[in-house]
What does this fold into?
Amino acid sequence: MKDFAQLIKKLDSTNKTNEKVAALTQYFQNANDADKLWTIAILSHRRPKRPVNTTLLRLWATEISGIPLWLFEESYHIVGDLAETIALILPTSEEHSEKSLSEFVSEIIELRTLPEEEKKKYLHDNWLALNYFERFVFNKILTGSFRIGVSQKLMTRALSKATGIDEDILAYKLMGDWTPEKTTYKKLILEQNDEDYLSKPYPFYLAYAVEDNFQEDLGPISDWSFEHKWDGIRSQVIIRNDEVFVWSRGEELVTDKYPEFQNFLKEIPNGTVIDGEILPFGEGEIQNFNTLQTRIGRKNISKALLKKTPVILNAYDLLEWQGEDIRQEPFSERRKILDGLIQKINSEEIGIYLSETMNFETWEAAAAERDLSREKRSEGLMLKRKDSPYLVGRKKGDWWKWKIDPFTIDAVLTYAMRGHGRRANLYTDYTFALWDEGELVTFAKAYSGLTDAEFRQVDAWIKRNTLERFGPVRSVTPQHVFEIAFEGIAESSRHKSGIATRFPRILRWRKDKPIAEANTLDDLKALIPK
Amino acid sequence: MKQPLLVFNEKGIYCQKADVYIDAWRPVDKCIVTHGHADHSRWGHKQYITHTNNVPIIKHRLGEISVTGKAWNETFTINGVKFSLHPAGHIIASSQVRVEYKGEVWVFTGDFKTEDDGLAEVYEPVKCHTFITECTFGLPAFKWEPQTEVFKDINEWWATNKSEGRTSILFGYSLGKAQRLLKHLDTSIGKIYTHGAVENMTEVVRENYKLPKTTLITRDTSKEEIKGNIIVAPPSAHGSTWIRRFVPYVTASASGWMTFRGARRRRAIDRGFVLSDHADWEGLLSAIDATGCEKVIATHGYTDIFAKYLREELGYDARTEKTQYEEESAEVDKKIENED
It folds into this structure.
């Protein structure tokens, strides 16, 4: 654990990518295989299941510390991180534990099955056997994921340096639903194995947003293939060995959530992997993303729900064909095969459609198509270089997204909550309201969009203008107007305002506007596409 | 009803009987000043009373003012009210103010810490009935390590940076924290360079305190001569153009707020050392206990939470008062600069 804690400390104490990679590389060169495997797992968000709920963690930590629970809660609101709060309030310890990361993780896995009293004893003993930072890391493993500014890409780069294995190959090996409990470092990283191959997805290729005046940099427009940017769930559908696997972009196996895709087996041959977007589809057309929300969170997909919100796969790329990885083929070739496949089969019957590709002769014509995005329920256009291979991860150059401008509305700040992580102890999570018959009605929450300096300014203002406190939440004097941007809008019975917005964020602080000039709920409703 | 010995009004902490203010935040006629930080020694009072060693410091900050210096424990009586200053241990020449009238004793701590930092006069517990205390770090999450440990880390950090050919830049407020850092840096590792704000204040402090040699960075100071050495600078220098000329460098901040991961990450500082000139949770509680007081008034910091704890868990008659010293309302990043 000492070495792993040391690694986390190093990663945490620099914001320079090279230093992070160097620290990780060094760790991967020296750690034992079991620790390496768990480090990879934890940094790719595959932590063991939580063995103890957080209520008990709080309770036991306060018992050891001798402070009342309310004081713990107050401290937690200010520290902004549970693992950190527990590590801080426990009595300091001069003890050292020689147990390794993997030993700790094995014990944590085992802990789940133990009776409560033994759990308590285990935590008590181990908390007091670790120094502050080790304790913090231990708590992080117990409670949640590590957010330490290490992306999977960065970790893969370090692992590549330490092992000499190509980064893209490693990225592929690390995909899928492996867990350290069922594999070994050797098997996962070093060996060639076909066993897990069956369900394994390819790393997704992700696009960057276009930059200003991008048209000049992209070369002849005839090099580019255009599509609408569909607003659904990016997915990879694998058909191998008479089985269907559906992966989300978050590398989650979501096959069970989309039982309708089992129909693909009827028409699509084994050895096919399709990249596309899961979209809600009814009455012959794409529906609003909001209707998909009702399916995303559900564990069990009932027949009624399947009938109410059917989905389709809008296919836009083919990664594997006849059992061959064809990612290095040019996009135009891959699309040719994909288009041929979809046209040949009873595609509508099994719920697979093609994301139509378009060619434009001028940027003006492309822009005109982009203007139709809202009508077509897309978020804008995708630009794909016709001769480009399918790359790994987010890379600049071959795929671009050219999104439409977001919806915007001017709203009043009404509530604030302290942020987490690097915003701990600062009021950065805001609730916004719009006018409705002389009252301010809450319509959205937003946490991003201001600069650090602006957040500090708003934070200081909030602390001086608090009306009431409800635990961590403060209501504030309605005084400031912010322009809120969002991507989508739909009616919703789950929201007080009757409206749900997608990805709301702060566009700017309208210091020039008095609250009387903020928008009304009716203004917001008028934005809903008819 | 009897008027309390000290009240909090719109100008500051006021003793009506003596017509004297303590650490007033608006201009007044006569003001006792606990220490040299800007939020406690404001501009514009007609007459200042403070510890002798603080006289050159506030004169440096406020210019030509009318100021009387007092020694530790020296009683001065104004209109029958007895006043005396006692070390607060916060920074060099920082005082607590003891106020006594007809056998009733109040103590105002100003800012204080209980640990001996090897430079500031060590905090002295003063018996009283009512204790007015700061509680900047009044949460159980704050627990300071002994400073010998912290300075071991700081010096190791410097030595490592030097071995990697990099310059170390350590941020600390120019009065108090900067001199405490200077005092304990291991000069066998290299030379100490200073930012102008730190150098000027340190020069003033040297009148009464012994500090290691420092070299002011000027326009002529070359990058090569600084390489591997350490620079002590105020936090405001972070991210400035002034700093960019020292590449390759590593930054660190020494402050109680460095307890929070978030506070350090937000400022994009490479390393945070938890080193504060305020009392931690245990320090606050032990200080209160040592005064034998019955009443506690919490002024700046996590006052509501701290006072609630004193009332509900320890049975004190505790309440809060608003002041214009560093409060919770000041956001953390500013606090990093002003805390000391």
About this structure: The CA atoms of residues 397 and 476 of chain A lie 46 Å apart. Chain A is about 35% helix and 25% strand. The first strand of chain A starts at residue 205 and ends at 206. The longest helix of chain A spans residues 17-30.
